[in-house]
Amino acid sequence: MMQTEAIELGIETRLLAREPDASAAQVIADVRIGDYTNFGDVESIAKGADAVTFDHEHVPNEHAQLLIDEGVVVEPRPNALLYAQDKLKQRRRLKALGAPVPEFAPINTEADAEAFWNVVNGEVCVKATRGGYDGHGVWFPASISEMLDLVRTVDVPLMAERKIGFDRELSAMVARNRSGEVRAWPVVESRQEGGVCRVAIAPAPGLDPELARECEQLACRIAEELDVTGVLAVELFETDGRVQVNELAMRPHNTGHWTQDGCVTSQFEQHLRAVLDWPLGATTPTAPVTVMVNTLGGEARPEMPVAQRVAEVMRRHPQAKVHLYGKDFRAGRKLGHINVATESLDEALTVAEDAAHFIVHGTWRDAAHTANNAKGE
Amino acid sequence: MMQTEAIELGIETRLLAREPDASAAQVIADVRIGDYTNFGDVESIAKGADAVTFDHEHVPNEHAQLLIDEGVVVEPRPNALLYAQDKLKQRRRLKALGAPVPEFAPINTEADAEAFWNVVNGEVCVKATRGGYDGHGVWFPASISEMLDLVRTVDVPLMAERKIGFDRELSAMVARNRSGEVRAWPVVESRQEGGVCRVAIAPAPGLDPELARECEQLACRIAEELDVTGVLAVELFETDGRVQVNELAMRPHNTGHWTQDGCVTSQFEQHLRAVLDWPLGATTPTAPVTVMVNTLGGEARPEMPVAQRVAEVMRRHPQAKVHLYGKDFRAGRKLGHINVATESLDEALTVAEDAAHFIVHGTWRDAAHTANNAKGE
User: Single GO cellular component annotation (chains A, B) (predicted)?
Assistant: First the structure.
């Protein structure tokens, strides 16, 4: 999705992809197939570029640093990226900044596990400190023995946090360029399913304006203090009118996809501007409300090809914006998303959910509903 | 610009380009270099495509027909395209439909020229019936002898029209899919310079709502009667609250670039949907007013590279949307355009003009103004 913005801005892109049929490789002309963990591969695409950036945070920092030492501009830089890669370092840094974070502790031994379990009365969330995404690398042990099992069997460094009982999840997104300019988008509500963001609503409905401002300022402060370049998503838990930081992502983020159709400057354009150290664009919304719903694959029905599903969605919902990633159906995989920008939250939510449901299932939600009702009678 | 929409919709594209550094060839992975007037070249890219379309109207119709005979979907089809290719056929057809067109006549001989000159009292516009664009192939002879010279020296078929004294130019754009669904965008005002569209304002300021509706209906009717598929631009002259058709274009058009940032569905997305026979998208504007200003190259100042100019524009105008075509500066060439979507016409026009001026000249308009004033004092 960065490529579409790059095209309009006249920015030439070069991609390192693991496989020729990766989403981005389908839409970028200059593709090198390689492994981002192999320094030679990364170096080969970095040569001559005005800036190097990534669409995930798992690039080895020692390689990024080697490139920087060679004079290549790499953004975000390892000193910032570290805090999106290592959850324990992130928690420690955020706590030091005075940012609201849940109680946490490193879990290296069974004794650590038992001690933390007791501190939080068993309200525990265990996380791999590195490598997790979309709910992977996160566990909620139901008993101390389950927690001890994790310590014994999981072979990556762990940490634990107090499990938060939250009212809803928010996401405060900002972008910061190399020169230090920061701009925030309106705070959105994010609805997760199985650890994956499925719905984003911009702006977050009914959010107290004071708290909204607080969230935006928090995200700006984190971007500045952590020296982030590019897009930063601060995922938050809202509980009783207060927030705590859940996760940080240093890249265009699922909760920012709405900006493609609901904002003057999309997160993808903004990320490019930020890493090239161009001034940032206006983050003003272009509609009172924009809803994004992901199309999470699962029930592939090969008898109706994706193109036909798209056409059916377009027929019923001329205002829906369909975005597809060129991926095949697979359980839980994000095939794309739908944005609907309009006056009314109800309409936006209904249309976006309806459209996304059809892309995934090849049937209308209300048809399924009617069928179920008929069965029940 | 169609490619950016194709990417988001998951549509795979293949391009026939004359040169590897053509704008579109820079952003499409699957490019064949060839000549659109060579049937073999066109056939080679058409094989296996769901639809074939073009970004200009000069594709030989006999080739398009051959492809259709082979079972390829080509849109728009030759029966429609003909009326965008041949101005005389277009005038005859529009007149037969009762559409408002200026008085016209074919000019094959000097006698034809003299006769028409007398009919319109020397208020003459001479046009090549085929091959013209952006002011090329259009002449305004100041005397009968100049007109006779044209007949003697121009070696393509000519026609003549009564020269229209108009208040302003409008553009009524619609799209029609293969199944016959038609959607109109708001009518825009178009400001030309040297035969090239330089500014478009959507919607056309102060346009009588009755006349706006009339223009939209006229464009819809032309699309239907001419069996157009894809985007159709009907360029109009407005005079004393009435309109006459100036030109037809059957493709995404300069006067529709504003839709990229000011409308739910851009002309580029709509064209793809239309030629694939997908249902059309909503044409609702997303801002009260959107202004597009082309960046027409001319005064290249290589000491400030384009990227730096873009950055300067972004610094001063965070709300300006920059679109570049990957072309080098050259006199009168369109390098790109700026869209500004906002509440106020004045603001949109000022910002878009200012931004476009800087991209082209590398200086601010007001700086030039101030410098001139200083010189004058």
Answer: cytosol
